[in-house]
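fyi for ur records
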Amino acid sequence: MITIAGAGLAGLACAYELSKRGIAVTLFDLGDAPGSDSVARFAGGMLAPWCERESAEEDVITLGTRAAGWWAQITKVTRNGTLVLAAPRDQRELARFALRTTGYRSVCKTEVSTMEPALAGQFQNGLFFGQEAHLDPRQALRDLAKRVQYMGGIIHFDTPAPAQVDLDCTGMAANLLDLRPVRGEMAILRCPEVTISRTIRLLHPRMPLYLVPRGDSHYMIGGTMIESSSTRPPTLRSLTELLNAAYTLHPAFAEASVVELGAGLRPAFPDNLPQLIEQNNTLYLNGLYRHGFLLAPAMAATVADRLAHHTTSEDSNAHHRQCATA
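which gave:
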């Protein structure tokens, strides 16, 4: 039996991988439902390793390329790719983005209009990352929790974890050296006047925007990365920048309904890459930063292999002790 503190994205992903290996798991979470107490509920849900490479390490591509296939076994994954755009005045940003990543092809004004008719005539060119995908984070967390429970995992909601657990996946609640909070802000808009089918990244020197379709005319927009430990709602300044960027993408967003505003603290280490840390007989998985849905599958598999080996070794040692005393 493996005990896990935290039934958010990391904890559930690890529980799933452990269950696949035939290991019983029990999770403890302070929230009252899957993901209700997790920063992952504010995520974009973009499975976009090549786009993320623009500002992240090569490991993000190496670990993230398997994510879409992993998630597709659990929840709905939309594989429409990512379209990166920039206003005419920001073409330098598009050129800079192209130089810092791979896995794309350049598209002209006609191709942009064909791919997303709602954006016809608004952008002269762009970059299309055809292998990328996206999902609905909240639905993915619910589906992942159901899968863990179906495989025999036990999840205790509204329940503090015991003082000693095998695996800690509690994000910013973990007492780990060098762990810092990076604030992410988002809004969910409803805009029936606009139909967009894939993730759009709109480049801007001050605040790049990403827009992710959620279905039923709903769109999630985000873009801020703030070194802050505050969990207050988005500020008027950042919200204005987000909504102005959405308006730049399409003027009809000026009439969109604001369904939800949110902000969360994403745990990160100095290099913005996740780490496995063993401390006081507990293994910690932390530091997924803004790459949670992208990197959780690979990191969870690594955790499961490590704990499965440890569990097997303990069982073997116990068997030898029993034989020795027989």
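Confidence is low (pLDDT under 50) at residues 316-326. thats all i got for now
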